[in-house]
Amino acid sequence: MPIDQDAANALTALFAEPDIQEVAEEDSWFSNGASRGIAADMRRVNSGEGLRKQDREQLRNNIASSSLEN
Amino acid sequence: MTDLQEAVLYAVNVMHEVNNEINDVASGAAQSTFPSMKELINAGNFIKGHLQRHTTTYRVYQEKPDPFKIMAWMGLYLHQENRTFHLRAVVYSLNHLLEQDSRSLPSSMLDKITLMAMNDGRDDDVAIGKNGLYLIFRSCHKLSIQSNPG
């Protein structure tokens, strides 16, 4: 479940100005196909579809096996 | 929506999902409170400034925003502003990014990273810090895509 729409609108408005330049670098890891997994997940999560079932199960296993309470 | 807006929204949405799962699975423990809209806006402003400082200091030029940076910096900031938002939600969210490329850190390492990140702003000598938190997951990702290209 994504965050509520008011919060999402406020956050995206905050980053609307193109004040952070995006130009090519040698470490352009995100666009070279090396992280298609993250790009696909970004589309999925931001569309409201949420985490994949297997990701949710893995997450729940990690939480359950943690020795932390915080 | 720009790439940066997408990346910020993604980081927040993943942390929100993970936070809900923590509360669901660890129902007997203290519940983790997801930050309010005001806290998210404050964190967003912090990210804008820190991203600018980071890119200037290290002469980093990115074609696309790095979700590891945004998630680590924003998540730690949110935890420091509101300690009822559990840091585990941030660390598990960063691990979720690794899992998208078929890699994951074991639970024992995630616990250790969480404990070290908790000391940020409290006892910096034994803390990992926001840049360390980002870089440990970013480095793991780099290794994972080198050993598992494509």
Report on the architecture of this protein:
The complex is a heterodimer of chains A (70) and B (150). With 70 residues, chain A is mostly helical. Chain A has a domain at 27-70. Helices cover 49% and strands 0% of the residues of chain A. Chain A has helices at residues 5-14, 36-46, 53-65. Chain B is mostly helical and 150 residues long. Chain B has one domain (3-22, 31-147). Chain B has helices spanning 3-25, 37-57, 67-81, 87-99, 107-118, 129-147. The radius of gyration of chain B is 15 Å and the shape is globular. The interface between A and B is large, with 53 and 65 residues.
DSSP helix fraction of chain B: 55-70%
Number of strands of chain A: 0
Number of helices of chain A: 3
Mean pLDDT of chain A: 80
Count of beta strands of chain B: 0
Radius of gyration of chain B: 15 Å
Name the helix and strand elements of chain B from N-terminus to C-terminus, one letter apiece: HHHHHH
Low-pLDDT sequence parts of chain A: 23-27
Tell me what portion of residues of chain B adopts beta-strand conformation: under 5%
